Amino acid sequence: MKKDSRFMVGLVSVAAVVSYLIWTGVSETMVYYLTPVELMEKVESDRTFHEEGVKVSGQVLPGTYQRVDGELLHTFVVRDLVDESVTFPVEFRDALPDTFTDDTEVVLEGRLRGDGVFEAETLLTKCGSRYEAAPEDLAG
Amino acid sequence: MLLGYVGGRTQRGDYVLSAERSIYAVFFLLVLASLGIVSAFLGDKFEYWYIASYSNREMEFFYKVTGLWAGQRGSLLFWAVILAFFSALCVFLNRKKNREFMPYVAGVLQTILTFFLVVLLFADVNPFEQLAFTPANGQGLNPQLQNYWMTIHPPTLYLGFTAFTIPFAFAVAALLNGRLDARWIQLTRRWILLSWLFLAVGIIFGMRWAYEELGWGGYWFWDPVENASLLPWLTATAFLHSIQIQENRGMLKVWNMSLVLLTFLLTIFATFLTRSGLIESVHSFAQELKIAYIFLSFMGVVLLACILLIIYRLPKLQSENSIQSFLSRESAFLFNNLILLGAAFAVFWGTIFPLVAEGVTGEQVSVGPPFFEKVNFPIGLVLLALAGIGPVIAWRRATKRNLQKNFQIPIMVGCFVAIALWIGGARHGLALVTWSVCAFVLTVIATEFWKGTRARARIEGEGFAVALFHLVTRNRRRWGGYIVHVGIVMIYFAFAGAAYNVDERQHVLPGDQINITSPFGHIYTLTYEGLSVSLNRGQRNLLWQAIATVSVEQDGVAKGILTTEKRQYVTSDQLMTEVGIRSTVREDLYLILSAMDDVDGALSANSSAQGIDLQVLVKPFVLWIWAGGLILALGTVIALWPSVDRRRRSKRPELEAVTTGVPEIAGAAR
Lengths: 140, 670
Prior knowledge:
The complex is a heterodimer of chains A (140) and B (670).
Chain A: H1 2-29, E1 31-34, H2 36-45, E2 54-60, E3 66-68, E4 73-79, E5 87-92, E6 105-112, E7 118-125
Chain B: H1 2-9, H2 16-42, H3 49-54, H4 61-65, H5 72-93, H6 102-122, H7 148-163, H8 165-177, H9 183-213, H10 224-249, H11 253-274, H12 282-287, H13 289-312, H14 329-361, E1 365-366, H15 369-389, H16 400-423, H17 429-460, H18 464-474, H19 476-497, E2 502-508, E3 513-517, E4 523-535, E5 542-554, E6 557-569, E7 575-578, E8 580-583, E9 587-596, H20 599-603, E10 612-620, H21 622-640, H22 646-651, H23 654-659, H24 662-669
Antiparallel strand pairs in B: 2-10, 3-4, 4-5, 5-6, 6-7, 8-9, 9-10
Helix pairs in contact in B: 1-2, 1-6, 2-5, 2-6, 5-6, 5-7, 6-8, 7-9, 8-9, 8-11, 9-10, 9-21, 10-11, 10-14, 11-13, 14-15, 15-17, 16-17, 17-18, 17-19, 17-24, 18-19, 19-21
């Protein structure tokens, strides 16, 4: 039975290591996932939040998308999904996904700089359910 | 459909025959239903919601047929039909054998089938639902899904998910009839392997699709849907290893029962997650509320019922042996299991963490790829090392001599590879460690093959090639498993190459050149030749297409032309990017047309308007992922293949097949 207990020590230590990895993984890589309204509130109450990496979901304001030729830079304005008065400009220096159009819902990861411009490192589009169509649109 | 219910209930006594026949009936009816959907696709019957959503008049025949599994509703029907097919096959194959299991097996299968039929009929996902009006044309399939890999990726995964229902049914049957030795495992070993094979291949198909079609140069994004398909694969892998301990040493019975249950639940979870937006946000949860509740309560009921059954049978599930030493094959396998489960748990946790955190703190948070990488890289490395240790360490208790004999050379080779790579200029720590562990595992496997073949060649007096062939065919299970491990090593080897990815973006005009240094030291010179925009070139559905042509030189030697393009389809307001890939054994050159300055200007062949943003990636060893997948499939098929020599097999029960392992052959070699 002594062997069994030695073995239990092994099991427990594996479990402990995995939990430790998960715990540190979560605490080091976790980011807030906010709406633009929440982001603005956070920044107002705490200036250091400008340095914090966050994830924000919002809607691209139609007609604001611009590509700066030759600089590999995309700019557009994002507004809150509910409160249309809350907006901020976005700069993005990577390739846009094909699903991006100038009125899509996007999820941005990056930080809101002190000058109020959101510097996005990643951009994902949110197509409701994954690749699902909405046939109700056909009625029109 | 009523037959399903009746059959599910009448699983005892005289009703067995009717239960089994009802499975055939359900299968037949589901085939009819699926044919109905396919013919509706082919006949452009847009009055059906499902057809209007996923097809249009212009779509190619091929995609119309495969439209059956393009969306949630059709997928569920398709799922049910495959499940019914496997169930019918299982009942048919066992019509004269294993009668102590079959009534229960049929009952369990019917219950699960019934569940899917209930979902199809009552969860607002009936694929035959009609619209209030008949649209003139359908919406068409998202162009990103119109790709060969995407067409075969979902059904492959579904085959894997559903095939696992059979071992689950046998496990429950064993719990019910009380035959709790390794019999149910032996009976379902092929089903487990089949399911595992389809899962693995399905996942790799998905990676291939992402790599070719999504246009960002990666193959895995730790997306919830991807994770959902990975989870049952991880637990099924654990199960495949732990059943060997039960077969050989009569241990871990409760553990195996739990694993089969867990894997089955995860396949259901994956089905549910793949086609609903649950994880993205709790808000989309509301839209799918009904189906979510049905799925979750089904999973809850199954979980509860199985736990109660296991507790009820606990006295019969006692181990016949106990682990004697830390340094033994049992313990290596157990660690492999724990670590696989740990990885599965980490992936599961990362996937549902946003939901949990929101429920607890009210604040939405998210964990992304960095989390999964941070947690799974170390876990994956230990697992890889165990793949080298497990097969050769002795059962029960490894002696110092056994360890020395088996591991001295492989460890030396591993260290040698690390040093050689360091001298060769590789400095990325994690990649270095991965490659040297790969070398370690490969050496172990190669040594096994060498020893086995040599021993056989000597004893039977056969030539070397013949001996190798006989070695593998006489114990497919063991050597097939080793070949699978080789495939896994190749995939790890390729993953580590990602540490040396090169990523360059530039704005270019026709005639501009980009110089890229590959991690292997040679230089690519890419010359942008220009952008040719053409309006609908006769291909149905296509509005326009812009093709950027780039000529490739490697160290001054012309290597041909690569194109990357953007397309606009009639039916979608999205653009589609097609990437240009040049694959070699060493690395892939991957071109992405990121953005165009002026599409209209380029149409008029005005070269100053042909400026584009070009992204160039150099990705080492990607080809090895697909090659590793092939080897893995080959190994699994070898392990799966029914024994040709039935006489031999019946004389020597399968149990023995595994034990005729190292000690005997090593002994013979001495």
